[in-house]
Amino acid sequence: MKQQNANGFHYLFVDATYKLLLNGFSLITLGTEDKSHHFKFVGCAITAHENGNSYQRFFERIKDAFLEHFQFELKPHWIVSDAAESIVSGAKKVFSNSEHIRCYFHTVKAVKDKISRWKNSTEKKLIQNEFGLINYAMKLLHCATTDDDFVNLWKLIKDEWNSKYPENFLKYFKRT
Fold first, then answer.
1. Which pairing describes strands 26-33 and 39-47: parallel, antiparallel, or unpaired?
2. Burial tier of 32 (Cβ tally within 10 Å: 0-12, 13-18, 19+)
3. What is the pTM of this model?
4. Are residues 85 and 147 in the same domain?
5. Degrees (nearest 5) of the Cα angle 115, 37, 174?
6. Is the sign of the CA dihedral 17, 143, 131, 127 positive or negative?
7. How many domains does the chain have?
């Protein structure tokens, strides 16, 4: 709750892995962060089905627990995860006013993968050579501490990238 009061908004970080359990079930984890960007664990669940309904039930249980135990209505501004549609759809049903963004790790991985598959060799070489600057811009976006900072920083980055990189790269990044 301190993070909510300190920043005026908050994030929920969600991910799942199959690598921790031998039976094929997935472990869903959820956390938030403080204003120093330190991860704070909130809860987890084991599920046999990683789908929108599973995430919806998980988010509902977390939201209900916050209300019951802390008398706090959980209203995250951002849901941060990979691009799994099951997370996005489950979160939207429970936190209808939240926005989804892809986490830094998954964004970098997706951008690297996209660059490796880039068709135009001249454009590919340009983007590969500039990846250090692209990655730095992604880190800056990740560290924005207010909505206004994020929006203003994204505008600066977008303007710079419009003048340097292929249009398809910027379109891809926006979707990512």
1. antiparallel
2. buried
3. 0.76
4. no
5. 30
6. positive
7. 2
For the residues of 49-77, what is the DSSP string, one character each?
Answer: --SHHHHHHHHHHHHHHHHHHH------S
Least confident residue range of 19-28, 45-54, 119-128, 135-144 = 19-28
pLDDT for 86-111, tens place per residue?
Answer: 999 999 999 999 989 888 888 899 99
Range of the domain at 132: 103-175
Mark which of 78, 101, 124 sits at the end of a domain: 101
Same domain for 12 and 91, yes or no, is yes
Among 71, 101, 131, the domain-final residue is: 101
Can you say whether the dihedral through the CA atoms of 15, 118, 171, 108 is positive or negative? positive
